[in-house]
Fold this protein.
Amino acid sequence: MEVSPMLDAADGLVRIPAEDLRTLVVGAALFAIGAIGFLTRRNLILLILCGELMLHGVSLSLVTFGKLQNNNEGQAFTIFLLTIAACEAGLALALVLALYRSARSLDVRLWTELREADVALAPIDAPAAVAASSYGEIPKLTPAGAEPAELPRRNKPRK
Amino acid sequence: MSETISSMLPPDLLLLLLILIPGAPLVSAIVTAVFGPKLLRCRSHLPCWSALAVSFICSLLVLLALPTAADPNALDVIPPAASSAPDESGEPVAGDGQAADQQELPAIAAVDIQSSSRSTAASPELIVVGPTWLELGQMSVGFDLRVDSISAIMLAMVTGVSLLVALFGSGYMHGDGGYPRFFAAVSGFVFSMCMLVMANNFVLLFFFWEMVGLCSYLLIGFWFHKPSAAAASRKAFVVNRIGDFGLIMAIFLILTRFGSVSFSDVLGNPGMIADLAAADETLLPLICFCLFLGAMGKSAQFPLQVWLPDAMEGPTPVSALIHAATMVTAGIYLVARCTPLFMFAPDVQVLVSATGAITSLIAALIALTQTDLKRVLAYSTVSQLGFMFMALGCGAAGAEVTTPAVTAGMFHLFTHAYFKALLFLAAGSVMHAMGDVIDMRYFSGLRKALPITHWTFLVGAAALAGVPLLAGFWSKDEILAVLGTASSTGNYQSIFRIIRIVATVTALLTAFYTFRAYFMTFWGEERFPVEAGHHPHEATPIMAWPLRILAVCAALIGLAVGPTHQFQTYLQRTVGLKPYEAHFHLDVMVMSAVIAIAGITLAWSFYVVSPAVPARIAGMLAPFYLLSQKKFFLDEILYGIVVAPLKIFGRICVFFDRAVIDCLIDSLATVPASVSGLLKNFQGGVVTSYAGVMWFGAVAAVVVALSLF
Amino acid sequence: MSGSEQLTALLQNNSVAIVSMALWIFGILWMMPGRKVTPSRGVIPGLVLTLTGVAGLLLSFNAVYADVSEEVMFWAFSIIALVCATLMITARNPVYAALFFALATLSTCGLFMLQNAPFLAAATVIVYAGAVIVTFLFVIMLAQQSGAAGYDQTAGRAAPTVLASFVLLGTVSVLVSMAPPEISTVPPVDDSLRLAGAATAGEDAAGTAPGGGASMRIAPVDELLAQEAAAAAAAEANKPEPVVNLLSRATVSHPVGSMKGLGRSLFGDYLFAVELAGTILLIACIGAIAIAPRREEGAL
């Protein structure tokens, strides 16, 4: 078993094997990236996705630790994690839909009812101002089946 | 008769009666206050009526049973061994008989009945040792009840008049929005007044002294939406506080010097009072002066009499009950109760008499020119209270005059309660018929429209004026007689001579202004104010019957207890009073009868025979007329001397508070405000910024963990 | 060694990892939308920086799997997961973000497979790729305006957040590498110990898991004897096994990740929690149905 440069085996204790340590770091990196996304982005759906990414990181760590400990509890917990993540995603998306309906926007900065009364609001930019996207044209996902009648059709299909 | 009644009343029943007297009104007050507005509504008078009836019957039984009930020989309340050594602190003495009593009354196990070792057939007293209320150092104050002769008389008078007034009130207040509130307050008042009279120590007395003040405040301000009523209730409350200050000072003095506040220990201990008076000759005058200050406030004596006329803003039954018959006599009761103390302060007794004389003269002079029927009666109340104080102070002439003096004062208190309540209720009946108009200039000649009211008012007025054989005649006669005795014996003859002249003049004025009011209201051409409608209606039966009963009382009660000397014999068994031989003063009687007839005749000639004369006289004596009309400018003088300087001082305080203290505090308050202004910016309301703060904190924590690792 | 010397040593020993993380940071910041709506600077430089950074970070561990195919799979899955995660959080279009998330999820499942968790890998693919991602796409489709919204093209506080997060990543990596023996490798429990536990204190464990008992019954006789001897030796060594969660411990016959072992853990030790999780799912389902549909004011 090789010792990675990050390890300091001077005390002679048994350490985590380097290849498992590598996986743990991947999990931690997924967690950190998810946190970055959660803290910087403003789209409510993206925030939930970032939360899911953080959960992936945690799951990976749990599984790795379970393997290290020769214990199935890590995987059992990951299954619970999966369950809770599914619940959370379902509820969060339902909430997002409700919020979207009342504000016609997914911007998280619109929801500031809990602020101190005289604190300046974070800037909310006008939603128009389409800038050139690096991904080119935004894909239009045509709704399947009957069109939902309630939603006003804001945009005509482009030819 | 009393022997038979007391033999029918075992000690347990007697104890129950004593507790029921204040207990029934208390229950009624609570029930009416809690269930009145929603449940009872227009039936709110029922608890009050029944409670007052129970209270009245109990009081009568106690009154009749007392002379023998407290006699240890006649009634085996306490084994001789236990009664010979009563506990000084007032704790119940453990005796076999008492233990049996306690077992039979488990609900009030802490209460015990005992008659003091000093209780003899000469001065019987019943003492109920209640639960201890507060214990501060050497002072132990319990809900101890005490009934002796003076309390029994007061109780019977208070509950009887209250019952009649409550009956009248249900008719008078019918349809008023605050109907339940009225009866709750009246019940509360009767409870407080009974407790005030039954209290066995000064602190309990003071507590209920304040309670009756509170009830009076609530009832004066009964129609609180009227600014004048609200102001009057406030005025009564504040003016009374001045007197209460004196009372509480007196209580402190008694506590520190006597080491106890119990009546039994303080008043029933002549040797100790004499010792203290010998040791410090200013002590007892000081205590008595402070006590009298309290009495002045409650009984509306000069210069604290300003609140009573304004108190007429309350409903008329309340005026009859509280501000004529019962509460205002609490001051008289206090002074009479503390006679053993006052005996050692003759200077203060003279002051009492003099104050009474000044008050009664001023009030009578003011009453001459008032046109408001209720105000005339209110000033006459003040004047009669002055009469009572005049009598009470006569003890200064010598120890042998003390008992007749107190008797005369208390007797006048007793009769006055009936005829003044009658007059007020009759005035209420007039007011009821006239659509709440009470100014005598707007109506006259009501004797045909309101026959019952007319006759009852006439009886009351005659009793007040002192027409022979009616109640007021006997009691006023007693007062004049005792003043005569005082002006011919003792140290202060010259002063009492002046006081006697004042009393005589006041008696004349009383007869005059009372019948002035009577003639102006019920004689002359028949006129009604517009508010009365076309046909003024006579009192309903529920209002008429109390009037009739009170009229009978006002006519006969003096005869029943005056010439027979029943009252005197009964009262002089109070602790501190000595039996004396009562006898008629024929000369005084003839004089007072002549005075009364003269006053009435004068009023008749002025207001019935030649109605133009009063105006002419008023024109001739314009400055004096104005002085009387404006109540000697006493309100204005008090305002200038007391209120205005206080207001200026208050302005200065406000300025200091605003300019100095507030500035200091405000500048201090800017520091946290600015700090919080910085921290506040984190509270932007956006979820991600909160999560960011949390995230940076977590990162910092983990980095710290690494450095510790 | 003093604190500063220790820090210097730590930085020197891990210089490769630190430089790689710095590259990665620059890559993220390059691709991240700015404070105001500005045209994208192009993905390619950021992508290259990210790739380099991720590869360098993984290289710095100097570790290889014994099996070459495992090593290749690890590299592929790790790089795809981390790069897709980076692209996801910097995407200016939520649809693309969702798709990158799906890719990252799939790669994570691959890593699960490498960590002896085939069942989990399958379950995650089914739950996420099959359900969650599709739901996300539906919601994006319903809620997305035409064109790129302003709030998708801007981001706040990017630099401090990225720095703090990478500080956390580095710190956690160091902490994990210095973890004490208690959380590092534990050998699989020998079934003989398992037997001893069942004989002494594992009565309830045997009762709740008949599967465990069955496996013991079908074990060869001589093996059982050997196990008994080992149990005696273990008892002499006076090392009492903790009796909690016995069924979750991997044994020689039920290694980590085997379906049987996972089943024993879930339906033995965590039976109640499984029921609870099912209840929570039901409640969440009802909640989502209650919240999402459009209703009249005051309905429901």
About this structure: Residues 634-680 of chain B form the longest helix (47 residues). Residues 635-673 of chain B form one domain.
